[in-house]
Design brief:
It is a single chain. It is built from six helices and eleven strands. With 245 residues, the protein is α/β, with parallel strands linked by helices. It has a seven-stranded mixed β-sheet. A two-stranded antiparallel sheet has the order 4-7. A two-stranded antiparallel sheet has the order 5-6. The longest helix is centred in the C-terminal third of the chain and has 18 residues.
Amino acid sequence: MTRGISTFESLARRVYAAPARLGRVRLVAIDGPSGAGKSTFTDRLATACATVAARGPNPAMPPAANPASTVAGPAVAVVHTDDLLDGWRDQFTFWPRLSTRVLDPLRTGRPARYRRYDWAAGRFGAGWTVIEPPAVLVIEGVSAARAAVRPAATLSVYVTAPEPVRLARSLTRDGAAIQPTLDRWRRAEERFFSADGTPGAVDLLVDGAAELPSGQLPSGQLAYGWIRDWPDVDAGGAGGAPSAG
């Protein structure tokens, strides 16, 4: 299924080189079905963004494209949509909470402020998570790259994997007891993705089950397999700079 291989560092550089569309924040929305590998992809991209930013400004890039040059907050922040769901029945209806608590404030240069849902207790926690406007905000979770957010996203990503792979990961991660609930969850996400057209509308389609030969990877760098790469465009369009990975 994989069509090509790129490094996360290369993708991070492309994100920084692309225009910010959520105010001064570069929003990366990472979507896909449960068990596809969204969390792993998110963690590795966030780490790469932080690494690129830590190296300091690139004199070859304009000031607006330099990491963290236009914001006072962190180089990168991550929000998982599961932290904003009010339980299992809030699978897709949580969006106003994400919009009003996270996206709208950051769009206007104000801190995001939200409570995280405690899945064990079945309620939102008492404390607040506060995020100062970052250079890059990564939101990850089912429906994170829905049509409502794509115009504000610098990069939208859909991570996919074959159903048997996703089910095996779910069994390993969550155990057999919760599988009936997750089956209903998976059927609902399939209906949502079909109605939203997410896989065909995102910028980057990722193979979350790709086996990447170590001999093809730059030394010391992590990589991902893509099915459809982020299109290369000029500085005035949507998308990012050409991939170097």
